[in-house]
Every structure is written in C-alpha cells, then in structure tokens.
Amino acid sequence: MNPGPITGGCQCGAVRYALHVDAVEKPHVCHCRMCQRATGGVFAALAGCAKKNLEWTKGAPALFQSSSLAKRGYCRDCGTPLSFAYDLPEARVYVTIGSLDDPELAAIEIQYGVESKLSWVEFCEDVEQKRTGGTPEEAQFFADMKSNQG
Ligand SMILES: [Zn+2]
Ligand SMILES: [Zn+2]
Questions:
Q1: pLDDT single digits (tens) 13-46
Q2: Is residue 150 part of a domain?
Q3: DSSP state of 100
Q4: In this structure, which residues have their CB less than 5 angstroms from ion ligand 1?
Q5: Residue 80 is part of which domain span?
Q6: Is the pLDDT of residue 4 over 80?
Q7: Among all ligands shown, which has an atom nearest to the Cα of 45?
Q8: Among candidates 6, 27, 33, which has minimal Cα distance to 96?
Q9: Residue 104: inside a domain
Q10: Comparing C-alpha atoms, which of 12, 8, 140, 2 is closest to residue 75?
Q11: Angle ∠(55,44,31) on CA atoms, nearest 5
C-alpha cells in the first residue's frame, strides 16, 4: 500500500501530478496503433484513477484531441506523453507508467490493442490480452470514432 499520493511528472519537471489514491487502477499496456503513434513507442503503458483523484500539482499538460473520443496530455516543453482519457465524465484518466516517480507501483494487469501488437514484442506473455473493440459493446463504442492522427 502506498502511504501518500502517487506522484509523477514529465522529464523536464514543468508538469507534475499527484494521484490521490492508495493504488493505481487497471495498470495496462495498449498496443493499438493510435497509442504507438501517440507515444512514439511500441505500446503505451498506462495506469489510472477516477478523474477527480488526479491533481496537476505543477503546470498543466497540453492536450491533444487524438480522436473524437479521447484526449492525450503531454508536456508542451519537453514532449513527455503524460495522460490519456476518454471524453466521458465517469471515465478514468490514465497516466503513463513511465512518468510515475515509482513505476513499480503499476505492474500491468492486462494488455489491450493486441491486434496491432508488433510481432517481435514479447513480454508479459502470461498477462491477459484483449483486442480493441473485442466485445459488441466496445465495438459499438469505437464504431463512430474519428481519428485526428494525421
Ligand atoms: Zn516537461
Ligand atoms: Zn491504445
């Protein structure tokens, strides 16, 4: 159990955040093509909390509306990807696990977007893997999504 807020921030220090929770929720990686492009990495690693429990304690992220469904936060000074959230009030906000001061607090529990998982990415093979829109409800959610990635 983490004694205080779970903290993190960007690489230049201009943006800092605190998650007012005892433990991060749903730590995961997403292999989807949009997360690959948004992070410039080969997957996104994200851990969440309720939106009301995330406090930006120094600066604030710039936000990119990466699709009609979600925004991604990043430091406008150094470019570190910091957050992802669907545009739904009840949705969680996720921070990038690599931006946490202690990423060990966010061991991944599930993998998403495995339809785009790169063939040579092999890790955490025992962790559950799901495709994007893999259930009828999720397929409906993504059906009308418009990407803003160029
Ligand atoms: Zn920065
Ligand atoms: Zn993704």
A1: 999 999 999 999 999 999 999 999 999 999 999 9
A2: no
A3: B
A4: 10, 12, 14, 75, 77-78
A5: 6-143
A6: no
A7: 2
A8: 27
A9: yes
A10: 12
A11: 145
d(CA 118, ligand 1 centre) in Å: 28
Q: Residue 41: how many CA atoms within 13 Å on its side-chain side? A: 16
Q: Measured in angstroms, how far is the CA atom of residue 62 from the centroid of ligand 2? A: 19
* Least distant ligand from the CA of 58: 1
Three-state SS at 53: helix
Span from the CA of 102 to the centroid of ligand 2 (angstroms): 22
Contact 123, 141 (CB under 8 A): no
Q: What is the pLDDT of residues 95-134, one digit of tens each?
A: 999 999 999 999 999 999 999 999 999 988 899 999 999 9
pTM, two decimal places: 0.92
Looking at the structure of the chain, the number of domains it has is 1
Q: E strand or H helix at 39, and its extent?
A: helix 33-39
